[in-house]
Prior knowledge:
By secondary structure, the chain is α/β, with parallel strands linked by helices. It has helices at residues 2-37, 46-51, 58-61, 63-73, 98-101, 105-114, 131-134, 138-146, 154-164, 179-192, 212-226, 243-251, 260-268, 285-290, 294-301, 319-328, 360-371, 384-396, 410-422, 455-462, 486-495, 502-509, 521-530, and strands at 117-120, 169-172, 205-208, 233-236, 255-258, 279-282, 309-314, 333-337, 348-354, 376-380, 401-404, 427-430, 443-448, 472-478. The chain has two domains: 98-337, Rossmann fold (3-Layer(aba) Sandwich), CATH 3.40.50; 348-509, 3-Layer(aba) Sandwich (Rossmann fold), CATH 3.40.50.300. Helix 20 links the parallel strand 13 (443-448) and strand 14. Pfam families: DEAD, Helicase_C.
Amino acid sequence: QYEHCLSLSLSFLSICKTLTTRFGLLNRRNWIMSRYDSRTGDSTSYRDRRSDSGFGGASAYGSSASKRESSSVGDESPKKPDLDGLTPFEKNFYVESPSVAAMTEAEVEEYRKKREITVEGRDIPKPVKSFRDVGFPDYVLEEVKKAGFTEPTPIQSQGWPMALKGRDLIGIAETGSGKTLSYLLPAIVHVNAQPILAPGDGPIVLVLAPTRELAVQIQQEASKFGSSSKIKSTCIYGGVPKGPQVRDLQKGVEIVIATPGRLIDMMESNNTNLRRVTYLVLDEADRMLDMGFDPQIRKIVSHIRPDRQTLYWSATWPKEVEQLSKKFLYNPYKVIIGSSDLKANRAIRQIVDVISESQKYNKLVKLLEDIMDGSRILVFLDTKKGCDQITRQLRMDGWPALSIHGDKSQAERDWVLSEFRSGKSPIMTATDVAARGLDVKDVKYVINYDFPGSLEDYVHRIGRTGRAGAKGTAYSFFTAANARFAKELISILEEAGQKVSHELASMGRSTAPPPPGLGGFRDRGSRRAWS
């Protein structure tokens, strides 16, 4: 009889709890929707963003879009999130300092012209000249001071006020310009203003990156600058066991840096969700499109609340990148450092040698003999096989070389990068997996053993040197098979104030396409050079 009474009591308490929870959620939902109903004229409100099909609103959550994305990525798709009941959040944290407010329009224009800053959008904030002007909390400024920075870079000077205002942002700047901190420091401020994560919550900040190497580097910066405010971050990428990544997600992290494929895998296995994401970053957006991540990006973004803040970073601005931005961004600011046209960092000395395929290896060895002084040298090749073969030949000839490419395990890639960073192995051969976002200090020379398949990749490859105000030199071996790039390459060289050799100029004047069959010339010549 006692057990029967106890069972009835527990059942009654369970029913009461269920009714209370449902009633509470209903009241909360009504309060939220009434708040948004009163803000229908606000262009940043949740209701307006969701109804604007042109900017990641209804189209991102509609059934037809869902079917398209599901069919292009895989048969299974994470369950669509229910946005009803999500709590409103704050995203505008910018307070203009007196010194910035005192700047006249003429002074603002002069400063932007001096630092080659071009802006687009409405209600654009003035640029900041010092870290104190940004209004970052003391704990953020302390980390900046520890890192040894003296003043904001051009992209930070204009990008920080824009990001802190909570608006969507397009940032276009060359590699090594400080883009990572341009979105990470505002992200830390954003996280600290949101409610603390509850059990089962996903991240507040999501950063998508094209490669494992770039994702790891972003996470290192996030850990460094977020440590003082106890912000946890993790890196989600393929090629390594899932266990440690799953444990991080289950414990709860405010910032997730991820490559698209592994993140979708984690979502489909219910190891994380994107319901709490209110700050989304797409880093190296152009590279992600080059690598075919368009369907995965669309799929991921469709699971994030549409009133999020989105920051879209790219070093180039091709039409594909622009079209993708129109689907995900709402009324964005746009800041361009320099020109949106393709151009190289002026701190890099560029030398292009027109040679035959069979001369490459001997030219490489002679070049290494001239420049080898213990400095880090990065050698780019087109293929994984080429990387391994050239590395093997260099080591047989007594050169301290290692290689990195997509077929290497993550542990081996990490070890190679560690050896290269420390200077134990100052020569590293690589495919384009290392071209974007790879931030290794003191890379003095970049050598394009194989000229890349696009001028965008050329700019990013040579951008591994001359970073953070340092000087660097880039050598490129240019063959008849690369003739179609001659005119554009000459334009890039001339824009950067570099000398153009007579051989390259002559090749640029020729409008004839490369003779058929030259595509296979590289392999035949390379085998002779390696034998």
